[in-house]
Amino acid sequence: MDELLLTLPIIQPEAAAPVAPAKPRKPDWLRVKLPVGPAYANVRRLVDEHKLHTICESGNCPNMGECWGAGTATFMILGNVCTRSCSFCAVATGRPTEYDLDEPRRVAEAIQLMGVKHAVITSVNRDELKDRGASVWYETVVQTKLLSPTTTIETLIPDVKANWEALETMIAGGQEVVSHNMETVGSLYRLVRPQAKYDRSLEQIRRTKQAGKRTKSGIMLGLGETKDEMYQAMDDLAANGLDILTLGQYLQPTKRHIEVAEFIHPDLFAHYREEGLKRGLKYVESGPLVRSSYHAERHVNVPI
What we know:
- The chain is of the alpha/beta class.
- The protein has helices at residues 2-7, 38-49, 55-58, 64-69, 103-114, 134-147, 164-170, 189-192, 198-210, 227-239, 266-278; strands at 53-54, 74-77, 81-82, 92-93, 118-123, 152-156, 177-179, 214-221, 244-249, 283-286.
- Helix 6 (134-147) links the parallel strand 5 and strand 6.
- Residues 1-11 have low confidence and may be disordered.
């Protein structure tokens, strides 16, 4: 019996399955109201009638109800299919087919009809185009200014991949603010913006400033950045001539996109605002629901 017992296998208790870390729950301060009201409905109608794309819709912006309810919108030109595959963005990725040379006129007419006092214009990345879509950018700003000479304009332009001639054309139409979003800190670029380069985006901002423009950028928080990395990013932006910085909470648009690492408390957003101003930035818009075009009309008055 003793020998038999010695030959029996020793059965180990089953190891407990690893417990996945709980996903952070969306806090109350990120709740937004659904878009309602006649002003919102009017913007909705004009966007549909003129077959326009807005980043408000394509980017699932949480402020769409507030902004559209106030009769404003951020227009997205050059189609709604992007050549990039950033892990945070809700805009469709693929091979764009749309290239409408009449789009500048339609955007300008819609802005005039809406009576917009301050228009924000952005676009998808069009890396397949030799000029990155710069000629459409230029004409959109010029035609908007012709039809609505008192309307101020911010252009939120994409990464031109060091095509500096295209950049010069994009920013030459007479807009008051030129924005290019960094999106995140340098260490997270491969994860968040795999087809972009941190230093190249900084250079784009520096060249825009050297051209005499009012410069602006935005960073999303909650992707896993540290405080020291945020301080470094703000130092880098200030050193490259940035005037205006927006800081907001990253929100995962779909399950296919990168998950939220952390929901940042409003107190930390307030802290980053003070730190940005200390580091030489002229204006910092910082809060959980802040997006690039949030309160954009205020940024026109920032001194160059």
